[in-house]
């Protein structure tokens, strides 16, 4: 009975962990009932196999669990890796829970000659349930193993998991192994677990890098689309100006000749002379006004036009444009209305304006002492999530600023009056909406030195993608930051 209760808890942990790792919901009422009945069946099967055929007492139930979970998902390979990992995590949690309960109940055990062992197993199971839920809220496990959906990641995981299952099967064999083999097998199992953890870490890193490269490529594609539209518009304006110049090449000499003839004419009647002069002046004024209006329209179309439909946001962008222009810099924006509309469904207008004000203000401060002064704001969609991206050619963040971000006010520009309040406000808004903060740094200013982005994906991540990864990693004293190597000296092309 004790073994039966033990495996009910372990298989419950395993199923809960499995769906968490692959980021799929399983809390439908009918599915919960089915999975609970499945755990009872698997626990009964394990109990019988322990009595009869110990060598397959774990592998057969795990295999059956994998088959059932594969039917509920869509990929047998991913399901197998996630099932084996979930079983290992569940077994480990149960062992830790058992040790903790044993330490707590040891005094009662020695005081009572007939301590009910079933109560001990129930206490272990309940404590394990609390531990497994807390474990899966840790940042490393919180986002699951979504990288497994890329086929190239599954083969190595399959090999290691199969190796672990073979060792587990051999350890449950009835044949008594030699002393050396008995010592080697747990060692091999431990090494396999370490390899699994390292493999998991490597795949997470690759997944983050791929995600960042996708974001950057999408940003460049959106910018390219904007440039193509602008180029088409400029070509049309150039055609119109060419037509106008071609027309004026004939009209201006004709008007010049008319003025010359008027001045040389000898009008016998003064009233006639004034009438002719008045007509000539009106014609010249109409021509001048027409050309002025045409050129003004062309000039204004090439300038920044902040028309987002949000008065406070337009006012902010105009103000920041003037701030950048006062430094002889360039401030450009590419805002896609569908992304902005989606963004306003998530974040309030006041918070959005506040967030953009702090991001742009920090960028303007960072470019003030640089020879190249460019700031670019983009708002677009990435994987159906709104994405704010701010790039600039300013100096990089100090490492202490990156490490203290969100913990205490810290600034790279303390000598010029910076307080770090803006960065703290950015962090608070990020946490409020559970958005992800991405800081991307490039070794050369081509075309930008750094990029600070906010992705509203409800993942609440903090990611640094930099060529200074070794320096930053050596200074890390917090667990909520991911640092990845950026081998690109500039934006991807």
Brief summary:
By secondary structure, the protein is α/β, with parallel strands linked by helices. The protein has helices at 2-21, 29-52, 59-72, 76-111, 117-135, 139-142, 154-171, 179-264, 270-302, 311-326, 337-346, 349-367, 399-404, 421-432, 469-473, and strands at 330-335, 374-382, 385-392, 436-441, 450-455, 462-466, 482-485.
Characterization of this structure:
The longest helix is centred in the middle third of the chain and has 86 residues, at 179-264. This protein is α/β, with parallel strands linked by helices and 493 residues long. The model is unreliable at 299-303 and 489-493 (pLDDT under 50). Helix 7 runs antiparallel to helix 8 (179-264), helix 8 runs antiparallel to helix 9 and helix 12 (349-367) packs antiparallel against helix 14 (421-432). 65% of the residues lie in helices and 9% in strands. The chain has helices at 2-21, 29-52, 59-72, 76-111, 117-135, 139-142, 154-171, 179-264, 270-302, 311-326, 337-346, 349-367, 399-404, 421-432, 469-473, and strands spanning 330-335, 374-382, 385-392, 436-441, 450-455, 462-466, 482-485. It has two domains: 2-175, no CATH class; 311-485, 2-Layer Sandwich (Heat Shock Protein 90), CATH 3.30.565.
List the helices and strands and how they pair.
Layout: H1 2-21, H2 29-52, H3 59-72, H4 76-111, H5 117-135, H6 139-142, H7 154-171, H8 179-264, H9 270-302, H10 311-326, E1 330-335, H11 337-346, H12 349-367, E2 374-382, E3 385-392, H13 399-404, H14 421-432, E4 436-441, E5 450-455, E6 462-466, H15 469-473, E7 482-485
Parallel strand pairs: 1-2, 4-6, 6-7
Antiparallel strand pairs: 2-3, 3-5, 4-5
């Amino acid at each position: 009975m004790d073994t039966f209760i033990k495996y009910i808890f372990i298989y419950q942990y395993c199923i809960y962990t499995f769906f968490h790792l692959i980021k799929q919901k399983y809390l439908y009422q009918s599915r919960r009932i089915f999975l609970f009945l499945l755990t009872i069946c698997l626990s009964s099967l394990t109990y019988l196999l322990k009595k009869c055929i110990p060598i397959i007492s774990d592998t057969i139930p795990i295999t059956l669990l994998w088959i059932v979970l594969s039917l509920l998902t869509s990929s047998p390979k991913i399901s197998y890796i996630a099932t084996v990992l979930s079983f290992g995590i569940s077994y480990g949690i149960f062992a830790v829970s058992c040790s903790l309960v044993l330490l707590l109940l040891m005094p009662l055990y020695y005081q009572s000659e007939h301590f009910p062992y079933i109560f001990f197993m129930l206490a272990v199971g309940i404590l394990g349930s609390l531990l497994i839920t807390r474990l899966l809220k840790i940042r490393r496990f919180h986002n699951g193993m979504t990288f497994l959906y890329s086929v190239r990641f599954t083969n190595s995981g399959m090999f290691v998991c199969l190796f672990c299952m073979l060792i587990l099967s051999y350890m449950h064999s009835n044949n008594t192994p030699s002393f050396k083999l008995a010592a080697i097998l747990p060692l091999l199992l431990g090494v396999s677990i370490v390899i699994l953890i390292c493999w998991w870490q490597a795949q997470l890193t690759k997944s983050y890098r791929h995600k960042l490269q996708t974001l950057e490529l999408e940003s460049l594609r959106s910018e390219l689309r904007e440039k193509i539209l602008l180029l088409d518009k400029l070509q049309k304006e150039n055609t119109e100006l060419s037509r106008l110049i071609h027309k004026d090449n004939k009209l201006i000499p004709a008007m010049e000749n008319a003025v010359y003839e008027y001045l040389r004419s000898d009008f016998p009647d003064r009233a006639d002379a004034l009438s002719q002069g008045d007509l000539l002046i009106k014609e010249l004024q109409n021509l001048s006004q027409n050309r002025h209006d045409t050129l003004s329209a062309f000039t204004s179309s090439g300038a920044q036009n902040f028309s987002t439909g949000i008065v406070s946001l337009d006012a902010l962008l105009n103000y920041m444009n003037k701030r950048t222009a006062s430094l002889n810099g360039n401030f450009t924006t590419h805002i896609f209305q569908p992304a902005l509309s989606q963004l306003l469904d998530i974040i309030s207008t006041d918070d959005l304006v506040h967030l953009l004000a702090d991001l742009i203000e920090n960028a303007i401060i960072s470019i003030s002492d640089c020879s190249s002064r460019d700031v670019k704001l983009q708002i677009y969609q990435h994987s159906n999530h709104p994405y704010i991206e701010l790039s600039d050619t300013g100096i990089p963040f100090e490492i202490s600023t990156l490490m203290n971000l969100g913990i205490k006010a810290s600034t790279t520009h303390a000598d010029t009056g910076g307080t770090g309040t803006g960065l703290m406000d950015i962090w608070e808004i990020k946490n409020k909406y559970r958005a992800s903060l991405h800081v991307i740094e490039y070794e050369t200013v081509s075309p930008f030195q750094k990029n600070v982005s906010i992705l509203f994906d409800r993942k609440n991540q903090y990611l640094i993608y930099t060529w200074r990864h070794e320096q930053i990693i050596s200074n890390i004293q917090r667990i909520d930051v991911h640092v990845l190597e950026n081998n690109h000296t500039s934006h991807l092309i």
